[in-house]
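STRUCTURE:
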């Protein structure tokens, strides 16, 4: 009995040491991976990298990590227009089946899904900034974006013309994703006193698209919905490079 007791104590101690070693190793790997992602993506701040699953050391031995989560704050995405970017407040990506090199200089996920948030103020910067001719001497310009409820964006336009001066008009608009571009499309035309608006002319002022390109690792926009603080975007990708 005494020998069995000693054996059990040894097993518990070794198990505890293994857990400690495993957690130290995963913490080191997370820091190394975070530094590589920051360098690869040219980020101002180090992202948060979390390696899921236990034990970590057996995953390392196999050369593949089951699940790696990356969180990036204030990511500047390309818009397809020279010198112009759009800020993503929170980019969250969940990487599955990640293969990596021994020094963590390169890592590739078989699949990735995630979310991103673009504020209404940031999206507004890329809407029509100059008044657009909507016919009969009237012009319209988008001056505000907000949550319209039920998955819609409330687009506020400022209309000027012979019968109105700085008239604010709110239009509920659908938001969708196509070809890596967030598209805002008005559901209905506004009713303005004395003005008969031609739809295609009005939409030149109310409708717009915003490309969001070159996201980390080559992930792409999948879907989008309006939320309280901005548009929430779902992203996905395959063979996504975290680093290298």
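SEQUENCE:
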């Amino acid at each position: 009995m005494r020998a069995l007791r000693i054996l059990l104590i040894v097993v518990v101690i070794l198990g505890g040491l293994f857990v400690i070693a495993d957690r130290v190793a995963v913490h080191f790997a997370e820091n190394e991976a975070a530094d590589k992602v920051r360098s690869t993506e040219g980020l101002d701040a180090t992202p948060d990298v979390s390696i899921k699953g236990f034990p970590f050391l057996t995953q390392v031995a196999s050369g593949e990590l089951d699940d790696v989560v990356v969180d990036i704050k204030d990511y500047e995405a390309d818009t397809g227009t020279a010198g112009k970017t759009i800020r993503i407040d929170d980019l969250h990506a969940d990487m599955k089946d990640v293969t990596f090199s021994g020094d963590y200089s390169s890592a590739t996920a078989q699949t990735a899904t995630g979310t991103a948030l673009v504020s209404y103020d940031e999206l507004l910067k890329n809407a029509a900034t100059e008044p657009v001719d909507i016919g009969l001497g009237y012009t319209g310009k988008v001056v505000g974006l907000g949550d319209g409820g039920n998955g819609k964006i409330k687009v506020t336009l400022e209309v000027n013309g012979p019968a109105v001066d700085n008239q604010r008009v709110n239009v509920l608009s659908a938001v969708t994703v196509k070809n890596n571009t967030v598209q805002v499309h008005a559901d209905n035309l506004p009713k303005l006193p004395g003005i008969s608006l031609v739809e295609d002319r009005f939409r030149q002022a109310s409708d717009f698209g915003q490309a969001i390109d070159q996201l980390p690792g080559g992930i792409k926009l999948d879907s989008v919905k309006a939320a309280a603080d901005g548009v929430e975007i779902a992203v996905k990708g395959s063979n996504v490079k975290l680093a290298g």
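REMARK: The mean pLDDT is 81.
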